[in-house]
Amino acid sequence: METKFTIGQKIVYPSQGVGTVVDIFEKKFRDEMLLYYKIYIEASDMYVMIPVIKAETLGIRAIVSAEEAEEALNLLSDDFEPITSDWKLRYQMNLDLLKKGTVKDIAAIVRCLYNRSKVKELPILERKLYDSAKRLLEDEISFALGKTQKEIEAAIHTKLEPLGGVVKVRHAATLEEDDEDDDLMDDVSGKSRDSDDDMDETDNNSEDLDSDEDFDDDEF
After folding, report:
1. Strands 17-29 and 61-62
2. How does pLDDT run across 125-134, given as a tens digit for each residue?
3. What is the C-alpha separation between 220 and 217, in angstroms, rounded?
């Protein structure tokens, strides 16, 4: 079976960050031999094992080019239409973007939530989502451009905070309307735990993750 990625190649695992394919091997799964990628995730210092046939479904992709990384950076300072003032809906929309995992999607999340935070403090879940997206963006762009994390962190801040620090949104008045209610946090707490699990599937106390449990017989 041909594989899209090769040993030693840098890849992006959406919601996890930049990783390196350290091995490609066969392993028995419920009486069937499957080909797996073993990926080392730098940010969490952890290994994950993913069936090759599941890699595309999970959104695993090659790191973007330097040109695409620069475009994502520039996106941070573009004007944009603010999304819904319903924070729960906004959270789910941005979470869906994070799972898609393109570098521009991640940049759009960072831009959206950063500018939202300039108007009103983000709820806890959105703040966690912002921090995750920003870390992922810094991670990939630093590798794509061959620069340090601190250099990219500074570049992102510069793009988000242009001279004058003006929030660059169209119809900015809509940002003033928000039906956010702290009591509503309980309504999504159950969902958010599942979502957070999606954002951080690995166990930081584990050096190795076998993804067998994630797949049912009918998926193969």
Report:
1. unpaired
2. 999 999 999 9
3. 6
Number of C-beta neighbours around residue 59 at 10 A? 15
Q: What is the pTM of this model?
A: 0.71
Residue 211 in contact with residue 50, Cβ under 8 Å? Answer: yes
Q: Residue 102: what residue type?
A: T
**b or e along 17-51 (b: 16 or more beta carbons within 10 Å of the residue's beta carbon)?**
bbbbbeeeeeeebeeeebebbbbbbeebebbbbbb
Query: How far, in Å, are 97, 98, 100, 151, 207 from residue 59 at the CA level?
Result: 11, 10, 6, 27, 22
List the beta strands (DSSP E) in the chain.
Answer: 10-13, 17-29, 32-41, 46-51, 61-62, 208-210
Express each pLDDT in 154-212 by its tens digit: 999 999 987 445 545 544 434 444 444 444 444 444 444 444 444 333 433 334 444 44
- Polymer length in residues for the chain: 220
| Distance in angstroms (rounded) separating the CA atoms of residues 132 and 119 | 20
CA-CA distance, 129 to 146, in Å (whole number)?
Answer: 25
Residue among 58, 35, 34, 44 nearest 207 (CA): 44
